[in-house]
Amino acid sequence: MVAGDITQDRNDMPKTRIIHVGLGGWGGDWERNAIPPVGEVDRVAIVDAHEPTLRAAQQKLGLPDDMCFTSLDEAAKNVEADGAVVTAPMTFHVPVALEAFDAGLHVLVEKPFAGTVAEARTAVERAEELGLVLQVSQNYRFYPGPQKVRELLAEGAIGDLSVVHVDFRRWDHDAPVETYRHYQFPHPLIYDMAIHHFDLLRMTTGREAVSVYAKVTDPSWSRYTEEASAVLVIELEGGLVCSYRGSWVSRAPQTLWDGEWSFDGEHGHLSLTGRGDDGPADDDVRISLRGGPAKPVQLPEMDLWGRSAGLRQFARAVQGGAAPDVTGRSNLGSVALMEAAARSAASGRVEQVEQIGGTVA
């Protein structure tokens, strides 16, 4: 199954029963926007260790007490479930996944999977040992623009690539320091946002990263504890170089969440942008051949996209279907690039990216 599978929900399959762990801001958004469109799942319980957050979610969702728990262990003992969807903060991703595996549950975990490859690998190896599905929600893959670019590059539509450029510009700096947790997020650009772009870079080019140099370019007035903006040079397999400029404090014209991509090749050029607030309708891919005018490329239609499309893959994999596009193991290459970029931002040196081997997807 590919990420762009447009088949309808399968009525002949039992629903995959999920426990949703982590009902904070992003977890609440999963409940409002990501889970409801997926007819192949049944959310049977919610879990949040912070009881006020749990009770607020319970009230919003109108759930009875016997579906609401402060621990995954308690939930797994009291409800019949097949898997866990983990949308807690990053530091809890692997510990909660390991707890879920001990309870015999498959796991879909939010990005970033973990802060280090070593930590992520503990969950990967445990899932494989137990024969359980471990999927990472790299939801930017599940849009028509990146999928079409991957297809075009794979078939050599613009010949051998010479360079890739990525620009991401957003202004996220109006909230007061006292109330806005994003300012304290660990590596708010590299971990929270660039991980999406790192994963798309691997997906579209089909190449792993070899090394990275990251230079933080924060202004003196930034309210972010760690980097809000940076410029990176990423070397991929075969000597291909990608320049990456990202910022949470840019007053320049704002990009969509995918950013603005430029793929230069021997025979032509591809541009990509997308992941807007209007879903796939915002995706745009254009191709120019041998210096000719850029022409829009027809994109595949999708009945589900983003997190919902990934959740459907998870549901089907749990029921014995094809493995999801982004398994825990295949995501290690994205974590490795993210980890090396953070090291480089701290060291000021070019850092080598750990080579996982055979995982690019």
Describe the structure.
- There is one protein chain.
- This protein is α/β, with parallel strands linked by helices.
- The chain has two domains: 16-140 and 307-326, NAD(P)-binding Rossmann-like Domain (Rossmann fold); 143-300 and 335-352, Dihydrodipicolinate Reductase, domain 2.
- It has nine helices and 15 strands.
- Strands 14-13-12-11-7-10-9-8-15 form a nine-stranded mixed beta sheet, with helices on one face. Strands 3-2-1-4-5-6 form a six-stranded parallel beta sheet, sandwiched between helices.
- Helix 4 (93-102) packs parallel to helix 5 and helix 6 runs parallel beside helix 7.
Q: Which characteristics define this entry?
A:
alpha/beta; Dihydrodipicolinate Reductase, domain 2; Rossmann fold; globular; 361 residues; 9-stranded mixed β-sheet; single chain; 6-stranded parallel β-sheet
